[in-house]
From TrEMBL, chain A:
GO CC terms, sorted: endoplasmic reticulum membrane
Residue ranges of every copy of the Oligosaccharyl transferase STT3 N-terminal domain listed in the record: 1-216
Keyword Repeat: no
Catalytic activity: a di-trans,poly-cis-dolichyl diphosphooligosaccharide + L-asparaginyl-[protein] = N(4)-(oligosaccharide-(1->4)-N-acetyl-beta-D-glucosaminyl-(1->4)-N-acetyl-beta-D-glucosaminyl)-L-asparaginyl-[protein] + a di-trans,poly-cis-dolichyl diphosphate + H(+)
Protein name in the entry: dolichyl-diphosphooligosaccharide--protein glycotransferase
PANTHER family xref list: DOLICHYL-DIPHOSPHOOLIGOSACCHARIDE--PROTEIN GLYCOSYLTRANSFERASE SUBUNIT (PTHR13872), DOLICHYL-DIPHOSPHOOLIGOSACCHARIDE--PROTEIN GLYCOSYLTRANSFERASE SUBUNIT STT3A (PTHR13872:SF48)
Protein origin, superkingdom: Eukaryota
Chain ranges of the STT3/PglB/AglB core domain: 370-429
EC number(s) reported in the record: 2.4.99.18
Database matches in Gene3D superfamilies: 3.40.50.12610
Known partners and oligomeric status: Component of the oligosaccharyltransferase (OST) complex.
TrEMBL record, chain B:
Biological role: Subunit of the oligosaccharyl transferase (OST) complex that catalyzes the initial transfer of a defined glycan (Glc(3)Man(9)GlcNAc(2) in eukaryotes) from the lipid carrier dolichol-pyrophosphate to an asparagine residue within an Asn-X-Ser/Thr consensus motif in nascent polypeptide chains, the first step in protein N-glycosylation. N-glycosylation occurs cotranslationally and the complex associates with the Sec61 complex at the channel-forming translocon complex that mediates protein translocation across the endoplasmic reticulum (ER). All subunits are required for a maximal enzyme activity.
Membrane-crossing residue ranges in chain numbering: 403-422
Organism: Gossypium raimondii
Lineage: Eukaryota, Viridiplantae, Streptophyta, Embryophyta, Tracheophyta
Bilayer disposition of the protein: Single-pass type I membrane protein
Pathway(s) per entry: Protein modification; protein glycosylation
The protein's name: Dolichyl-diphosphooligosaccharide--protein glycosyltransferase subunit 1
Keyword vocabulary terms for this entry: Endoplasmic reticulum, Membrane, Signal, Transmembrane, Transmembrane helix
Amino acid sequence: MVCSWGGYTFIINLIPMHVLLCIVTGRFSSRLYIAYAPLVVLGTLLAALVPVVGFNAVMTSEHFASFLVFIIIHVVAFVYYIKGILSPKMFKVAVTLVVSVGLAVCCAVIAVLIALVASSPTKGWSGRSLSLLDPTYASKYIPIIASVSEHQPPTWPSYFMDINVLAFLVPAGIIACFLPLSDASSFVVLYIATSVYFSGVMVRLMLVLAPAACITSGIALSQAFDVFTGSIKFQLTGASSNTEVDAAETSSSTAESQTDAVKTEKPEETAKNRPSRKSKKKEREHGEKPSTEAKAEKKRLLALPLESSVISLLLLVLLGAFYVVHCVWAAAEAYSAPSIVLTSRSHDGLHVFDDFREAYAWLRHNTDVDDKVASWWDYGYQTTAMANRTVIVDNNTWNNTHIATVGTAMSSPERAAWEIFHSLDVKYVLVVFGGLVGYPSDDINKFLWMVRIGGGVFPHIKEPDYLRDGQYRIDSQATPTMLNCLMYKLSYYRFVETDGKGFDRVRQTEIGKKYFKLTHFEEAFTTHHWMVRIYKLKPPKNRIRGKTKKSKSKTSSTTSSPKRSGTKKKNPWQ
Amino acid sequence: IDLSSHIVKVYLTLKVENAGSTPTSEVLLSFPPTQADHLATVEALVTKGKRKKTTLVRLDVKATELPDAPNDAKYFTIYLANPLKSGESTTIEVLYLLTHSQEPFPAEIAQSESQLVYYRDSALILSPYHIKQQTTFIKTPSTKVESFTRVEPSNRAGTEIKYGPYEDHPPYSFSPILIHFENNSPFAVVEELVREVEISHWGNLQVTEQYTLVHAGARHKGVFSRVDYQSRPTLNGASSLRYLLARLPPRVHSVYYRDEIGNISSSHLRTDSRKSELEIEPRYPLFGGWKATFVIGYGLPLQDFLFETSDDRRYLNFTFGCPLLETVVDKLTVKVVLPEGSKDPSAVVPFPVEQHLETKYSYLDVVGRTVVVMEKKNLVPAHNSHFQVYYTFKPIFMLAEPLMLASAFFLFFVACVAYLHIDLSIRK
């Protein structure tokens, strides 16, 4: 999992937590040691082989939990071993000795560790992990992480949308895990508890909640099925035979079910061991008659009436069917939209908005191979793949300062933006504009994040400059900084000519500045529904105004300087 | 001379008189070398009979004459069906098509300007024979003509310019004229087209065509303003390519139109019993110098195109050329993929092409399929005639693929059965 996602830190912290839990609840066994210790060693070694992780596998705080528990499990194993070979009195002596020495050593080690950890500003945790532990961290310090919509906390309806029926089966499963509590079921409980917390912090971690929810609700459902089918079997066979048969039947029926609702005893175990129960039923009947009579009574009380169990079974199956239907629908509607091709239904059929591909195809065929395209980082991978052109920033969001540069350029007035883009050797600027068709995820809606991210690195971009009374507007009440910034101009250039008033369908207002010209950019391409607009940087002027005037004034001043006795003008060219 | 589209169509009506003493059956046509490079087809017809029954007289390959050809003029010979006796005269209709002969001037235009082109020709046709009388009519697409060379007597009326009649000119006389006029018809040029026709004896003919389309008119400079383009399309982008029409055979199925990125959804297919029409719109309108690439594929029923000759050879009868109307193809490659097991392929094409053979490996192929590759340059829609590819195929080879599949599954099942029943334990 290290190779695929950074979320592997969740796993390598969950497993040590579970091991610790097992030790604390007294479930230490050689099995646990054999399972855990090689995992840590091999896992860390293999994780360090992945280029992105490298030495982070031993240096960042996210991995320290596994090492700590590694040490603890060794200590515990040693303690148990010593306990086994020493007598109790000797054991006490050894314990006091070890505790005193060990405590001193531990303190020293922990002090060193704390010093090491405290020396890094984030205490060794990476920004992404910190934003999970402290949900407000990202919005204060790392606006890029805060700007991704998948990093926001989920709403309650989104839980129901994603895991649907499982939302109320999970608590039932948790209860089922406690009857009885074994190593495996305690892991499941821990897994579901932590993943519920984390998915509450960030909606994209629903991904982590989903398997845990499936496991626990599967346990709950299987318990329920056991009870119902057991009762049906009990009722069907109990009604037509005598008590002995009942006993045998119930013992065999409970043996067939995989429940651990009641503590299992030897008869059931022996019954389980036999593969073909039907042929051996008669033997069991005779062998276990006396011991199982008491059991039979108990079981008969636990059995539910026949009709209700049949109906409940059917309802459970129906529940499963509805769940499948919902999942298929959710996958089709919410998770299958490619978000590159948008469709809308109108009275004359399906209308397709293929603007993104149109723009990328235009870029691919009608620009030079070396031309660089600047856009917001959301479209980086798409531009690289479909338009086959170099981009300035892309979805990897690897270099925060670079993204902040692009954000600053988008928030600056035209001339300053031109300077920034010219220094980056950009030829084309791409903006996404949804105002004509009502596409809500366009760059004007994302613009405040550009301001925040740019302002995080370049302090001359201040977010309040773009807000009027704390509100983000683009109509006539917008601030002058907003109306003059590059993003506004590139999005709304000649937009007023489409309908005469410049009504933006997404923001539902008319735009503030309607008639303006672009001085440093020219429009290279706009797609059919105006969703993607591509502008070309105008080349720098050959002659720079002002310098020639200065030299003229210099020559005039030198001719007249013998007359003047006052201050000598400083020559700007030397 | 018809200048209404970017392919120049020239119709000559020649009344040829044999002034010599011997009967001849050859008439020479000559062209200046610049025109000869752009010549796509030359056809000659002779009208016979009272009801305008036309018989097509075949045209021969050009043969450059002996050094008395002034300035490397190129020649075409027309062979008459009946030799012309001395003193007789006959009327021949000649049609030739020129491509890339209209040069856009100004070479770069903005979006709101209309496209003006130059056409260079001669008021008198370059002829190795003495010209007794000649009149030239030139038809321009619109009434907007910037200038035209005046060679007396010349006259312009509406969309037609008339040069002539000229009397008694010696052979090889040439009077260059230059016409500067507006031509907003779409200058669609396919730079490269690769057509692959795959024959499958199970009843389907699959055609895949890969296009590189370019707008060969005046290059686009400056801004492209979508608002201007959408609000006043006749004024802005009058010469842009908005859509193309492709004529496909009837009973076509599974038509797809996609490019490197994915499917292009702006296309319409209209079929009827005699032909199918596919109207495709490229993803963006093409202005001068803009390119687009796409792939069109479709399937056809095999029985419309595959036939058998009397001596047990099969042949495929298919159209050679681009199905797009009014487009010039600079380089066309037609590949006919014959099914596995075909032998002795040979192609019969009505005009000269370069041929060679290749092998292609496809599904369930052991030895590979033979591919007949034909290449030709400078095609026009008039080249959309039929060509034949002959090959021999023993029907027993049809069973090769089913037998291969059946035997594979059979061996697999036998292996499973054997594995389940073999007892490999060492001790009982």
